[in-house]
Amino acid sequence: MKRVVEVRREGKDDGRRALSPAPVLDGPDAQSDDAAIDEAGVLKMVGGDRGLLCEMIKLFVEDYPKRVTEITDALRRNDAEAVEFAAHAVKGAAMTLCAGRVAKWAVSIEKMGRDAELQSASAALAALEGELAQANAGLTRIAAA
């Protein structure tokens, strides 16, 4: 079964919001549960050019830790605009490499920054970091193939 898990925000009685998983979405474009990277999709995106793909992977692996640090630092400063900007960069790179779960969490954090609602952003960032680790492992495996 293929699925994509989205994040939605639910209001609490005290006015704060918390993250909760959204309903499972099935469909032909959904990633499988065990695939952090849609390998067929990313290979199609680069026209089967593994050299280009390896260069893209190298850039992503070098860049995403910097973006995570930017998000972390922005959260410490309560700088919603910087959170939005850094999450947007992660989202774009993740979408380019067909890392759907990374992109979903980055979209969530980007929206939190845009809406200046950062209460749940640290939890979302932790989830993003977990997905980034899985994507990194998948991309490393693809690059080595």
Would you give an account of this structure?
This protein is mainly alpha-helical. It has one domain: HPT domain (Four Helix Bundle (Hemerythrin (Met), subunit A), Up-down Bundle). The protein is built from five helices and two strands; from the N terminus they run E-E-H-H-H-H-H. It has helices at residues 39-45, 50-77, 80-96, 100-114, 121-144, and strands at 4-11, 17-25. The chain has a two-stranded antiparallel ribbon with strand order 1-2. The model is unreliable at 1-33 (pLDDT under 50).
Taking all Cα atoms into account, the compactness measure Rg is 16 Å
Write the CATH homologous superfamily: HPT domain
Strand content: 5-15%
Structural class: mainly alpha
Q: Kindly state the number of beta strands.
A: 2
Number of domains: 1
Distance between the termini: 26 Å
Mean pLDDT: 82
Looking at the structure, the CATH topology is: Four Helix Bundle (Hemerythrin (Met), subunit A)
Low confidence ranges = 1-33
Spell the H/E element sequence: EEHHHHH
Largest sheet: 2 strands, antiparallel
In percent, how helical is the residue content? 55-70%
Strand order of the largest sheet: 1-2
Query: What's the tally of helices?
Result: 5
CATH class: Mainly Alpha
Query: What CATH architecture label applies?
Result: Up-down Bundle
Morphology = elongated
